[in-house]
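TICKET: design request
STATUS: open
ATTACHED STRUCTURE:
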């Protein structure tokens, strides 16, 4: 007898290395096989209350429970441990605002990194650049990563990848 091969559901989306939970769930809700447009609707479908909306804003107080992670994981086809990797470690403090990004990293791979929101993060260690917290062209603060549908400033529509020339060294 051959072992059963588990198939991912049609709405399965593979998380990217170091991706923030906010960005991941925004990508998930925009997937063509998903008909859920808000974090509250998804949370209610799983029976975990409005927690996903808080998580997308990096508000982890109280910290997500194993039960919540398992419930959402079951619905989206992702292991609870893999979802936990998109969360900060329990001792890591988050910078809720402003949302930050390294435009060079984003140009290389277009997704929000969890580490950019750590209070302990000064800049991008990989590129030795300060993180941007607003559009360098119009000064609009960045929206939460769940809303980064086009990877651009919400006000002037400048692509994040083109902001890399405006980042300063640290």
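STATUS: resolved
RESOLUTION: sequence designed for all positions
ATTACHED SEQUENCE:
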């Amino acid at each position: 007898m051959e072992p059963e091969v588990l198939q991912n559901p049609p709405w399965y989306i593979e998380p990217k290395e170091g991706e923030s939970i906010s960005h991941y769930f925004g990508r998930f809700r925009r997937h063509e096989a998903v008909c859920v447009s808000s974090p509250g609707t998804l949370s209610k479908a799983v029976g975990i209350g409005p927690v996903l909306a808080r998580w997308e804003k990096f508000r982890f107080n109280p910290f997500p429970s194993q039960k919540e992670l398992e419930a959402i994981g079951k619905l989206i086809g992702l292991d609870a441990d893999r979802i936990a990797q998109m969360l900060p470690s329990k001792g890591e403090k988050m910078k809720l605002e402003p949302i930050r990004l390294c435009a060079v990293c984003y140009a290389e791979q277009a997704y929000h990194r969890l580490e950019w929101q750590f209070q302990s993060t000064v800049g991008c260690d990989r590129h030795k650049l300060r993180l941007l917290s607003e559009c360098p062209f119009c000064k609009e603060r960045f929206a939460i990563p769940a809303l980064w549908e086009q990877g651009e400033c919400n006000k002037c529509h400048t692509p994040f990848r083109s902001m890399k020339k405006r980042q300063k060294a640290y």
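CLOSING REMARK: The beta strands are 123-124, 129-130. Helices lie at 21-30, 39-46, 51-56, 66-76, 80-84, 103-108.
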